TrEMBL record:
GO BP: any one term: lipid catabolic process
Gene3D superfamilies given in the database record: alpha/beta hydrolase
Record InterPro entries: AB_hydrolase_fold, Lipase_EstA/Esterase_EstB
Protein name according to UniProt: Lipase
Transmembrane segments: none
Keyword Iron annotated: no
The keyword Nucleus belongs to this UniProt entry's keyword annotation: no
Pfam family, one: Lipase_2
Organism: Streptomyces olivochromogenes
Segment forming the signal sequence: 1-30
Length: 285
């Protein structure tokens, strides 16, 4: 990679962060008032009848992953909720490290709680990184398809990752794979060819009744190759961020943490009847 590209990426992330901070409230979409993020008294409006459950990524938690996107959705009148999952004993703050199938059971319980509190028949899910992968297990094996309308994955590792080829080196270090599986099961589950991914993707990527959107960036350095993030199915919309805005240099973290262009496209997926064109100017929307 050229040195100037390495320099531009963090500069772009800083620029997007600054824009998020200074975009005036007047530019927000007109929407019904929201009762707040993780406020169980929030009742979905007629225009946004489904609560949105946000699913964080590996090493993240229910707060830090969504400091920008949760308010973005709140401003648009959604009831927004987020959960912590995949905790390991003695490891505070950093979640999504436990076995992914067990994390999916935590999501199952959380979605049921949100639906009961809001009175909604179905929820929508938006996940970043592992959060864009794990819910697929819930949808496929834990009855989630009957309770979810739309699932948006932002930089998900749907078919695993090679970490730019580093995972190919594991067989050359005896015991490394076993140590990884024992210490951080979720990391082992996300490696290309893992038993978890083999089970998850057998028989097809998607299940009927759920609308899928995947938003990826070609600068992703964590989920590689980036096109492995895309799903195949009859109700799938795969989006490359740079097709929407060629100037967007967001990598794996930035696309989920602060990229308003990705946020705009995710919002389109949640409300396709009122979707508007996503482009570079969407950073101001």
């Amino acid at each position: 990679m050229l040195p100037w590209k390495r320099l531009l990426r963090p500069l772009t992330a800083l620029l997007l962060t600054a824009v998020v901070a200074v975009v005036p409230a007047a530019t927000a979409h007109a929407a019904a008032p929201s009762s707040g993020w993780n406020d169980y008294s929030c009742k979905p409006s007629a225009s946004h009848p489904r609560p949105v459950v946000l699913v964080h990524g590996t090493f993240a938690n229910s707060i830090d992953n969504w400091l920008a996107f949760a308010p973005y959705l709140e401003d648009r009148g959604y009831c927004v909720f987020s959960l912590d999952y995949g905790q390991l004993p003695g490891v505070p703050l950093f979640n999504a490290l436990g076995p992914i199938d067990k994390s999916a059971e935590q999501l199952q319980t959380f979605v049921d709680k949100v639906l009961t509190a809001t009175g909604a028949a179905k929820a929508d899910l938006v996940g970043h990184s592992q959060g864009g992968l794990m819910p697929r297990y819930y949808l496929k094996f834990l009855g989630g398809a009957a309770k979810v309308n739309t699932f948006v994955g932002i930089a998900p590792d749907n078919h695993g990752t090679t970490l730019d080829g580093l995972t190919n080196l594991l067989p050359y270090f005896p015991g490394a794979e076993d140590l990884l599986s024992a210490a951080t099961p979720a990391l082992a589950d996300q490696i290309v060819g893992s038993a978890f991914l083999t089970k998850l993707n057998a028989g097809g990527d998607t299940v009927p009744g759920v609308h899928y959107t995947v938003i990826a960036t070609k600068y992703d350095e964590v989920v590689t190759p980036y096109r492995s993030q895309f799903l195949t199915g009859s109700d799938v919309h795969n989006v490359l961020l740079q097709d929407l805005c060629p100037l967007d240099l967001s990598e794996h973290a930035a696309i989920g943490l602060l990229d308003r262009i990705a946020f705009h496209e995710a919002a389109n997926a949640l409300d396709p009847a009122h979707a508007t064109t996503t482009n570079c100017a969407s950073v101001f929307s």
